[in-house]
Amino acid sequence: MKADRRGGHRRYFTVLVGVVAAILLLSANAMPAPAQTWTLGACVGTNASRMAFQDDAAASLVKATPGIHVGVMVARNVGVGELEAQLLYTQKGFDSDDEMLKISYVEVPLLWSYRWPVALSPRIFGGPVVSFEVDCMSKRVPGLGDVSCDNPLASADRRKTDVGMAFGGGLGFAAGPGLVTVDLWVNQGLTNISKEDRPDGWVRHQALLLTLGYRYTIPGAP
Fold it and tell me: Which of 53, 102, 159, 222 is 20 to 30 A from 119, comparing alpha carbons?
């Protein structure tokens, strides 16, 4: 059953990539390549994150926990789309009946994006994300309350660097000299963040983010 589900996911992903590639190819051929420019911006938003477990029974015991993210970005127009680097502070973790885990990261998403020059400026984007832990708290630990994850009694032996993939889409609204943006995106961790030999297999981050940003393209930048 799990193998069939993974195969279905792979087929769905392959079809999605093919459709996106076809759309981008048609868009690139239909429009002249824009001049290369630099864009700067800042963003803030909310996210819902949880842990994904290899074992379905373990995954059913946890639920999403809310968090925030805030950061800055720089992007370079490369003809067909943009190459974008972000620097974010973000909160992740999970909630359960017994305890809540809150992990704060500094993240560096490296994204490729494409924005259509039409009304509402829709765009799609995706790329790798590297995350570096800066703080971790284990809350509601039985007999302990709220403690640092580095407390030996917290049972949170973990990897402090995560590598994942992000993908999503959004809209843009002209405001002054720049663009107000609203993005909805997924950040899927690929690293097993648990160092423990768990009977339920790997543990990975999952997060859904809603981001409000403002971008300004530098006029005449080389």
Answer: 222
Assigned token pair, 5: 């589900």
Beta bridge pairs of residue 83: 76, 112
| List of residues 6+ apart from 157 with CB closer than 8 A | 194, 195, 196
Q: Which residue, chain included where needed, has tokens 């994942």?
A: 164
pLDDT digits (tens, 9 = 90+) for 100-113: 788 999 999 999 99
| Residues ≥6 apart with Cβ < 8 Å to 20 | 124
pLDDT digits over 67-116, tens only? 999 999 999 988 789 999 999 999 998 887 777 788 999 999 999 999 99
In angstroms, the CA 35 to CA 33 distance is 7
- In this prediction the pTM is 0.79
* Cβ pair 77, 95 in contact under 8 A: no
Q: Which of 87, 94, 74 is nearest to 132 (CA)?
A: 87
Handedness of CA 182, 124, 166, 112 (dihedral sign): negative
